Amino acid sequence: MSYKARLKSVYLISLLYKKVCMKLLLPIDGSKSSLSAAKYVAKLAKNSRSPAVVTLVSVHDDASLGHVKQFVAKSVVDDYLREVSEKELKAAQKVLDAARVKHNMVIKRGHIADEIVALANKDKVDLIVMGAKGRGGLLDILMGSVAQRVSGT
Question: CB of 107 within 8 A of CB of 55?
Fold first, then answer.
């Protein structure tokens, strides 16, 4: 075997053993179900052979705030939604910190399922882990849950 052929085979073998980072997306809405998903991700990342990076995402659909926006400045609505998102993300962040799992946080506004799918595609995540039941109510009965909409795309 020539030197170039041996070098090429060593390179290919090193690629096979190279640690590939697993990218996980964890949508959080402050529900018990999303906290359970965070605990599952912490366990999954801890038991993975590859290092994992988790993106915590909080998405708020501000369409229901249309009547409020008429009387309150946009910056006030933005600050309120950011504060709510940070509060929702805090418990999941603590779970990942305790498990020493590397993570970052993203706060989005818009249609919840669409924003989750768009972020997953943009970041090329390997897995989306989310709770099956969230903070939804009557809208979920009529349209189906966010988890169902995300898994359907």
Answer: no
- pLDDT tens digits along 101-135: 999 999 999 888 999 999 999 999 999 998 876 55
Q: Which two tokens stand for residue 138?
A: 């009557």
| Tokens (6 digits) for 101 | 């799992």
**Residue located via tokens 């979920």:** 140
Buried b (16+ CB within 10 A) or exposed e, 19-41: eeebebbbbbbbbebbbebbeeb
| Number of residues in the chain | 153
Residues 6+ apart with CB under 8 A from 62: 69, 77, 81, 109
pTM strictly above 0.90: no
